[in-house]
Amino acid sequence: MLNRRILRIKAFKVLYSYAENPQMSLKDAEAQLEMSCTSVRDLYLFMLSIIPAVTNVAKARIEAARNKFNPTREELNPNMRFVENSISRILLGDIDFQKIIGKTKLSWDQYDVLLRKLYDDMLTRQWFIDYMSKETVSPADEAAMFTKMFEEEFVDNADLESILEEISIWWNDDLAYALTWCCKTVSGLAAGERWALPALYLSDIQKKPASESDKAFVYNLLRAAYTGLGRYSEMISGTVPQWDRERLFTIDTMLIVCGLAEAQTFPEIPIKVTINEYVEISKFYSTPKSRSFVNGILDRLIQQMVNDGKIVKSGKGLL
Q: What is the distance between the alpha carbons of residues 67 and 85, in angstroms, rounded to a whole number?
């Protein structure tokens, strides 16, 4: 489930926590990393379970309209396409999915205000109107409709952000990635696949050999950055001696430390890949000027370590 880009971000965030709290032990840092990683899958489960939740809201609204004292003809004969969608039925009927959701104790029951607002918004969207007005729909059409919901209804949704912050401190910044996996899941269900809990690490899903384990990668990265923080920070300070050390103890510094630790620890990862990854991450977590700063310092220090024999890469294109 988790690719190396998001794993690098997880390691960087834990390292930043350690920089802010030097009393944190390596064991504590690893525990924090584990919770941060597993929380992404919990968020995926929570967001996927919104499908039956919003379907139930639509069903309840139709029943309430039917039971009015003087319902209209339209209320007595509503369009049942959405409330009878197959994706919701599959998730509700999947014993494994329901069991895992129950174990996580994640539920939308207390967030009915957001669910009602979500359904009201969907009713106004052209993609939903088109879905409801088709003569017939296939499971692929239903998957496309829910994909639109995941793509357009939750990004920059202040109400949802407030709920996620209330539930878990680990869900910050992970929503878009979790929603991507929700979209993959509904497409798979529409194609006839049975739901299965995704493996936590992408390398496990791809069945890569142990030497390419993403779990080993992120834990080794964190350990190398944690144990080498002082040494790498001194190297960074020496590169920009005119800067106050306190000014360097920032997000940019932690990104550079992670980059140096990765370059030195993983001989099979090309230097270009490592530098580019942390430059890209800096775009989202630091200042507009950080991109060039992180790129310049990483490039300079890595080349220096290569020249000193402290970084050894073997193979074409690794240097």
A: 22
